[in-house]
Design brief:
3-stranded mixed sheet; single chain; 7-stranded mixed sheet; alpha/beta; 16 helices
Length: about 400
């Protein structure tokens, strides 16, 4: 029998890579809201590390609308959605999400992770197979593992391998194909047009997480579904209210029968305190802005092309991004953390992704060119990366 002390000691966190790099980029004390400069401790840094693509998280217009609802409903209804937490604002947001994505219905969760992690417990049973792109978010993987269905991965965007797996899985009751719309550390997109055709050929059920695509892809910001005009090609779509929408929470949208079933049977939804009414009002107001402000999308794509082009010319190994999000690949964790430290020292904030969040051979620094940035911020970042490019070996091969 394991002694209690030994059991507790087994949870010790090995922070050797952080100590070796002389820098811990995680759980830093942020002192203030989002904007072009982020205040961490006593430092102010140009922020390339937020998911606030369109700069809406600190919008005066949205905060004003949220403030009105805050006065009316208070901080929280202190209840689950199924009891007294489902205010008129909650339902208004769900209906607006459904219209925005041209789906039958939607439900709003306290977080996108919570939505994805609970997804397959209701959908799938032991007779099913979940066929997932190997680059999907960990929340979807965790959700699949919590189900009793078989889980099989196919190489990223490899439709030929997907076909072979589908061909070999005819014995299964249901075949679910699981993707992301905009992949969150590479910045590339699902080949949804091709994968949708394959899904129809094999009568498979497509589920897509477009947490990073909503607000960013398409002239109206409707995400990957707008990009490929694929509104009728997916069974369910999940997403985040805490990225381009600039609020907090997650959602699930799609087939009306399934959404209604989830509303009354998904434990992660019915047993969690509902989203506060003012958060719902903020997210709904943001969706209105997203539809009208394609200029913000043009701005962030322009910033990305300028920064991406400059870093590529310097010899940095970049992910093949088709969005305002991309990463610089490094040889190992130590080099990645060292670059994060050097950027921090030069007043640039960017996110270091190391294993297990990314493959062992592909640690990276992720950059996101938000609309709150200025032209001068992009120029400053280019100068900093030029100064640092010879301090750390650059990975030569794409993973």
């Amino acid at each position: 029998m394991l002694e209690k002390t030994a059991f507790i000691d087994g949870f010790s966190m090995d922070k050797t890579p952080l100590v070796k790099a002389g820098f811990n980029p995680y759980y830093l004390p942020v002192k203030g809201g989002l904007g072009r400069k982020i205040k961490i401790g006593c430092d102010e840094l140009i922020c390339f590390g937020s998911n606030d693509y369109l700069g809406l998280a600190n919008s005066r217009e949205i905060k004003k609308q949220a403030g009105k609802i805050l006065q009316q409903f208070g901080l929280s209804m202190c209840a689950t959605a199924i009891v007294a937490g489902h205010t008129s604002m909650n339902r208004m947001l769900e209906e607006k999400i459904a219209r925005f994505l041209k789906q039958d219905d939607a439900i709003a969760y306290p977080s996108c992770y919570q939505c994805n992690a609970s997804l397959f417990q209701l959908l799938a049973n032991p007779a099913d197979i979940i066929i997932a792109d190997k680059n999907i978010h960990s929340s979807l993987i965790h959700g699949a593992l919590l189900s009793k269905a078989r889980l099989k991965f196919f190489p990223h965007n490899d439709t030929m391998r997907l076909k072979r797996i589908l061909s070999a899985s005819a014995k299964h009751r249901m075949r679910f194909i699981v993707l992301e719309g905009l992949y969150s550390t590479d910045g590339d997109l699902a080949l949804l047009d091709e994968i949708s055709k394959v899904a129809k050929q094999f009568d498979a059920f497509v589920i897509i997480d477009d947490a990073h695509g909503v607000g960013v892809l398409g002239k109206e910001g409707r995400g990957i579904l707008e990009k490929y005009n694929a509104y009728k090609d997916v069974g369910l779509i999940s997403g985040s209210l805490g990225k381009a929408i600039g609020a907090y929470g997650g959602f699930l949208a799609g087939n009306g029968k399934i959404i209604d079933y989830f509303r009354y049977n998904c434990g992660a939804y019915i047993y969690s305190t509902a989203l506060p009414a003012h958060i719902c009002a903020a997210a709904a107001s943001s969706l209105d802005i997203i539809l009208k402000r394609n200029d913000l999308r043009l701005k962030i794509y322009g910033y990305k092309e300028k920064l991406y082009g400059a870093l590529s010319d310097m010899g940095y190994n970049l992910t093949k991004s088709l969005s305002p999000l991309f990463s610089i690949l490094f040889n190992d964790t130590h080099q990645t953390l060292k670059m994060a430290r050097l950027l921090f020292e030069n007043k640039i904030y960017a996110v270091a992704f190391i294993p297990p969040s990314v493959p062992r051979k592909a640690p990276r620094i992720r950059l996101l060119t938000s609309a709150y940035l200025l032209d001068e911020d992009i120029d400053t970042a280019i100068k900093v990366f030029s100064k640092l490019k010879d301090k750390i070996p650059i990975q030569k091969t794409m993973v």
